[in-house]
C-alpha cells in the first residue's frame, strides 16, 4: 500500500498551502454540507462525525464548521445545491483513476474533468471500468518517536487495524470501514503520537508499475485533478515510490 501512503504525504503537506488559499477549507466545508444532509447530530451521523474530525484536523475554525452543518441540514438552502459525482478513468500508461466530486454544476465539472484527463495523457471511462480494483478502507497517518513505533503499531493492531506501514517516524494504519473509528479513538489516547491525517479512502487491491517518465506524468495528472475546485478526492493505482515522490517535488 506504499503508493497510496506516499501520495497522501504529498497531499497532506500541500494542504497547508491550500488552506492559505482557501481551497482546503472549501473542500472540508463541502464534505460537512453533504454529510449533514443525513442528519445534523454527529453522534448519530457517522459520516458527519468523520467530516467534522477531518475539518478539525485541517485547523478549520469552529464557526465555519457550524455554518457548514446548518447549510447541509437545511437551515441555509445554499448547502442543498451540491451533488456527489464519481468519475472513473485511465491515466498515462493505463493507470486507473477514481475522481470524487461535489458540484453545483455537473456539466461544468464533467467538462473540466474530461479536459484535465485529455490534456495530461488520460481519458474518462465508463462507470465500473476501474472501481472493481479498489476497496473502501480507513487510513490513519500518525507520527511518533522511532523507538515507540513497535509499541504504537501493536496498539493499532489490537484495536483492529488490518495493516501497518512504517517509514521513519511515520506510521500508517489501514482499517476496515467499520473499524476506522475504533482504531482512531485507540490511537488518540496515546500521548506519544500525533495523528497527522485520518480519512476513509479507496485503496487499490493491486498497484500498477510503470516506467518513471510515465509515472511522473501520472502524478501530474493526479495533482491537476485535485486542483480543480469541484474535486474532493482523487485515487489511483499508481505504484508510487519515495524516489519518485522526491523527483516529482523537485521538478
Describe this structure in words.
- The structure is a single chain.
- The protein has helices at residues 2-21, 23-36, 46-57, 62-73, 106-119, 149-159, 180-188, 212-227, 242-250; strands spanning 83-90, 96-103, 123-125, 134-144, 163-167, 170-175, 193-204, 231-236.
- By secondary structure, it is α+β, with helices and mostly antiparallel strands.
- It folds into three domains: 13-81, Arc Repressor Mutant, subunit A, CATH 1.10.10.200; 83-132 and 206-250, YebC, transcriptional regulation domain (Alpha-Beta Plaits), CATH 3.30.70; 134-204, YebC, transcriptional regulation domain (Alpha-Beta Plaits).
- The strands form two sheets. A four-stranded antiparallel beta sheet has the order 3-1-2-8. The protein has a four-stranded antiparallel beta sheet with strand order 5-6-4-7, sandwiched between helices.
- β1 and β2 form a beta hairpin.
- α2 (23-36) runs antiparallel to α3, α2 crosses α4 and α6 (149-159) runs antiparallel to α7 (180-188).
- The two termini are 24 Å apart.
